[in-house]
Structure formats: C-alpha cells, structure tokens
Amino acid sequence: MGQNNNQKNVKKNSDDNLSILPEDASVLTRLSVLFGILLIALIVVIVVIKIFFWVKNDMNTKAISYVSQAEYYGELVETVSLVEDYSKLDDGFLASLKDNCQYIVKKYKSVSPTSEQICGILLMDRYYDFGKQEELIKYLNKYYDSDTKMFTSVKNEEVAEEEKVSCTLHIAHILRRYDDVLEKYEVYDGLSIWFNEKVKSGAIEENADILSDIFYYMYDENKQSMLNYEELEDYLVKEVVSYKSKIDIDNLEYNLSEVIMAKKLSVYRQVFLNKSDYVDSATEIFEEIDKKSGFMADGYGILLPYAINNTLTYVNDIEENSFFTENVGDVLYKYYETFLKYKD
C-alpha cells in the first residue's frame, strides 16, 4: 500500500514536471523572439539615425558649397543681365542658374555667409526679384562699422585696417550698379578718409596698390574730388607706363585685361597730364578681341564674370564686337559648368 502511494507520488511529480517543461520552454521562446525583435528594432533605429545624419551632412555640405560661391553666382547673374539682350544664352543653363540661386537664397542663413557673399545674393535678388532685398540689407548691416564706415568680411570680427579697406572696396565694386543699395552706407567717406590719412602720413609706398585701386574706383564713381591724390602720381605713372607700352604694340592679341589697362591709362593721362588721347582706347581694344582666348574661363578662372563686368563698364557699345556677342553665351555656360555647378 505504501509502495503504491510512493509510485503514485513519483508518477504525479513526473507528470507535474512534464506539464511545466513545455510552459517554461514557451516562455524562453517568447523571450528569445522578443529579444530578437528588440535587436532588429535597435538595428533599424541605428540605421535610420545614420541615414538621417548622412542626409543632413550631405545637405549641409551642399549648402556650404553653394553659399561659399554666392559672390561668383551673383557676378555671373550680373553678367547675364548685361549680355542677354545681345547674345544667345542656353535655356538649360539659365534655368539651372536660377534654380541654384533660389537654393542659395533659401540656405544662406544656415552657413554664416561673408559680407561679399551677401552682396552676391543681393545681385541675384535684384535680377530675379526674389523679394529678399530688405532682409538681405538688414543682414549686410551686421558687417558694417558706422564708426570707420567700412565693412568686414566676417561678422563681429576684429581685423586689420587694411583688410577692412580691401573688403569695403570689393563690396563697392560688387554693388557699383546699384546706388540705391550702396547709398545706405558711407563707403565713399570711409574710403576717402583712409586714403587721405595714408597720403598725409606719407604711408604711400607701403599702401600703393590699395591707394591706386581706391583712386580708380572713386574716379569711375565721379568721387575723385574727395581724394588728395596728387602725391600718388609718382606711383601711378610706374603702372601706366607698362600699360602704355603693351597697348601700343601692333597686332597684339588683346584680352579683357588690356581693356581695363587702357581705361586706367586714359584716366591717368586725363587727370595728371590733361590729355584725352587714350579716352577711347578701352572700347577700341574691346572691339578688336576676336578670339575666345580673349575672355575664356580658363584664362580668368572663377573671376571671369568679374572681369567681364568690369570690362563692360568701360565699353560704349557691346554690340560693336559681334564676336563677343556671338560667343559670350558659350563662354559663360562653360564657366558655369566648370566652376559653379555643384557635382553630386
């Protein structure tokens, strides 16, 4: 009887163990499945995060690339505005240029642009009428020092005096056709004060290049009366003598550089010698440019639009050079593809 009870108890315990094993196994299976799901979810999250930051980084890289070239985009747009009535420009090029300018306008605040880049965006806005001029001028104000009447390239940055002068003169050149923007700042006063102080202190030789640039710029803007430039003559003559010797060479294959040289030579001779014998030389040289090498992107690099824009400032009639009007569209398209178009 006792033995039967023991057998019953053993059998009962065995049955209980058998009933527990499947249940325990089911729990372990569920835990394993749950762990697997969580692991997969974690992997998915990590992948998504990586993709997010990769995309974000790629977008930032693209924005930085475009905005860093905003000045050159602006100069290119300015060139298009000057030649579009005389030249055939590729429709695809024009559409792509506008799209990229819109992208720059959208992204410029996210990448801390320089004052020169803001000015380039102002040129875009003026041509395409994006409606951002007031916003851009407020942004440009952050780079302007009302005490020195100068600009700095980077906001709130202490820089050498010469760097402020160079930046201010460059901005004045970029905005030279937009008096309504430039008149908001006293750059003529700032440049003339610095110029006159250097001349008065006898610091001409060490500042000759920038003083020369200021002199020619102020003359172009009919502001030379603000400068005490008489003592600069000895330094200007060294420059223009070399210009004259080159310009006077017969059968020279001219390029845009000689047009600008001729203009400076003419200004010097009018101001200091009271002679007007080279007054038309810039236009005459422009009319003789008959090879693409005279204004190819390869020759001027990323500064090509700046060179063309300066040249056209000194030319009386663009249409007088049919070679230029017929080929400038191809040259600008090549420039855009080579230097500005973003490569994904």
Outline the structure in words:
With 344 residues, the chain is mainly alpha-helical. It has helices at 2-68, 70-83, 91-107, 115-128, 133-141, 161-174, 179-182, 187-200, 208-220, 233-247, 256-272, 281-288, 297-300, 304-313, 322-340; strands at 144-145, 150-151. It has a domain at 229-344. It is 69% helix and 1% strand. Strands 1-2 form a two-stranded antiparallel sheet. A hairpin with a 4-residue loop joins β1 (144-145) and β2. The longest helix has 67 residues, at 2-68.
Task: Provide the fold topology.
Blueprint: H1 2-68, H2 70-83, H3 91-107, H4 115-128, H5 133-141, E1 144-145, E2 150-151, H6 161-174, H7 179-182, H8 187-200, H9 208-220, H10 233-247, H11 256-272, H12 281-288, H13 297-300, H14 304-313, H15 322-340
Antiparallel strand pairs: 1-2
Quantity of strands, as a count: 2
Tally the helices.
Answer: 15
Order of helices and strands: HHHHHEEHHHHHHHHHH
Report, as a whole number of angstroms, the end-to-end distance: 91 Å
What's the arrangement of strands in the largest beta sheet? 1-2
Strand content: under 5%
Decide which structural class fits the backbone.
Answer: mainly alpha
Q: Averaging pLDDT over every residue, what do you get?
A: 85
For the sheet with most strands, the description reads: 2 strands, antiparallel
